[in-house]
Specification:
By secondary structure, this protein is of the alpha/beta class. The chain has one domain (6-124): 3-Layer(aba) Sandwich (Rossmann fold). It is 44% helix and 19% strand. The chain has six helices and five strands. The chain has helices spanning 14-26, 37-46, 63-71, 76-79, 95-101, 113-124; strands at residues 6-10, 30-34, 51-55, 83-87, 105-108. Helix 1 (14-26) links the parallel strand 1 (6-10) and strand 2. Helix 2 (37-46) packs parallel to helix 3.
């Protein structure tokens, strides 16, 4: 049996964290949740993940700034990790804006959990 894939969820809403965890745990993903971009960088410094779900609007450090910081890391594995934006104000950004920031994809809020799962699998089952 393969090791469960590790997903880091960066989201300041406990409700969305819990719903996302439930969906992904059902598919045998290992989930770690943090509340802001700085905590993402701290966790990445300590362990490896297969994918990051990144809320765009978070306190301390937002998802765009955090993604740019991850893309500048010297570790080639960590700097290229797939990052999927989770955003409620997607109208303020285009997919091109997300790509320029280094994000691989996005899912808009309110979350469609079937779409979220499909998007995660698209980027993690390589």
């Amino acid at each position: 049996m393969n090791e469960p894939k590790k997903v880091l969820v960066a989201e300041d809403s406990s409700v969305i964290i819990n719903l996302t965890k439930n969906v992904l745990l059902f598919e045998n993903f290992h989930i770690t949740a943090v509340k802001n971009g700085q905590q993402v960088l701290d966790r990445l410094g300590k362990e490896n993940f297969d994918l990051i779900l990144m809320d765009i609007n978070m306190p301390v450090m937002d998802g765009i700034s955090c993604t740019k910081a991850i893309r500048k890391l010297s570790d080639p594995e960590k700097s290229t990790i797939p990052i999927i934006a989770i955003t409620g104000n997607y109208k303020n950004y285009t997919l091109d804006d997300f790509k320029k920031a280094g994000l691989n994809d996005y899912v808009q809020k309110p979350l469609d959990y079937d779409l979220l799962l499909a998007t995660v699998k698209k980027h993690i089952d390589n």
